[in-house]
Amino acid sequence: MLLEFKTKNYKSFVEEASFSMVAAPKQKGLDYSLMKTKIKGKEIKGLSSSVIYGPNAAGKTNIIGAMDVLRAIVLRGNIRNSEEKSSPNPAAAALELIPNNNEMESKPVCFEIEFYEEDGEDHKFKIHYELEVDLGTFLEEEHQRKILAEVLEVNGERVFERTQDLKIENLKVIKDYLSDITEQNADSVNEIAKNSLNQEELFLTNGFKLIFSPKFTKLIVDWFTNKFMVIYRADSMQLIKRFADPKKKAIYVEKTTDEAAKLFGINSNAVGYVVSDDEPDAKLYSVFKNMKNKKTTAVAADIFESYGTIRFINMFPLVIKAMQTGGTLVVDEFDASIHPMALMSIINVFHNDDVNIHHAQLIFNTHNPIFLNSNLFRRDEIKFVERDDDTHDSVLYALSDFGTTGDKGVRKHEDYMSKYFISQYGAIKDIDFTPIFEEILCDEKEG
């Protein structure tokens, strides 16, 4: 479960942006699917959902992009550019796209993430990871990149801190996960670790993994791989699901997704995936049964089904995976081309204590005001992104930050939608295209 994500100097977020999935204090009501647990006597309350609002180009997608970039860096274990260019998020592969484009001098790019993960009943961890990197200035491809700082904390105890030097601190907090060589040769192992540092490689997934704890590193990497599902750009929905050995040139119909698709609305008898010899990736097909000869025919889904249907079918397995694993599903423009009733049903699943037993999370940005509803989302679940017209810098804040008293206080059962449209909360822009068309008409008359 994601607890908090922070970034600084990532594109439009020049100052630190903090995205919290921890319940804000004094928030009452709508306690659906809250994850409540204690670590070292301190209670943690994790939220099950969050929705992000803001005008176009404010930075809503940037905060999701920053999550995606950190995920990509951790999974490849370095801050070099990736040779894999197929990602819908270019900055995840080409890191020179990250620094703010208005800065003339190089400033560190910072990421922090905190999440909760269990490994059996006896191992519950609040994991905090920080990464500070020097990537140069915007589009400076030849800059010599360097990791300036890297920190791992577990249950509030610092395991290691890397700056110019390396400090191995409290390993007892992960004692059940240490390699045998670490416990037997602590001093020499620490010296080997310091000598293993590479300025472009993460210590977490390199030296720490190889020398101290491959098992605990795997726990972290598995969370980023399987439970932190970040979908960047709605029009580039990618399947994370891996299918159970679909046969070559055979149609693979997953029962649960097919049933959900039929409820959603499809134009065929079923939907399924085909894997061919030429293209190893599974592709979505509409499946038809010929009423005369009873034979089955498959037609590429993008020819026969609507964009909204295809997008729903691609996304639904990720919803299932999140619910089964207690994963965090982060989607850019979750509501694009999907009917509000279908969206509401998915949101309600995450809010259902009887169904969301593993404390899965749904995070998405949107322009649709229908979700600004005090009966649907808590104040601490509603986030806003606003961009300054002069500096072009973005800021991120929650509805709960306004408090409940004073002129700008937000009460629990307030009409959030109406107040948002009169700019009570900011993060909205008045746009009037009339002068453009008046000028066009004026030019036509003069011409």
Automatic annotation (TrEMBL):
It comes from the Bacteria. One of its GO terms (molecular function) is ATP hydrolysis activity. InterPro entries: ATPase_AAA_core (IPR003959), P-loop_NTPase (IPR027417). Residues 51-372 form the ATPase AAA-type core domain. This is ATPase AAA-type core domain-containing protein. It comes from Blautia luti.
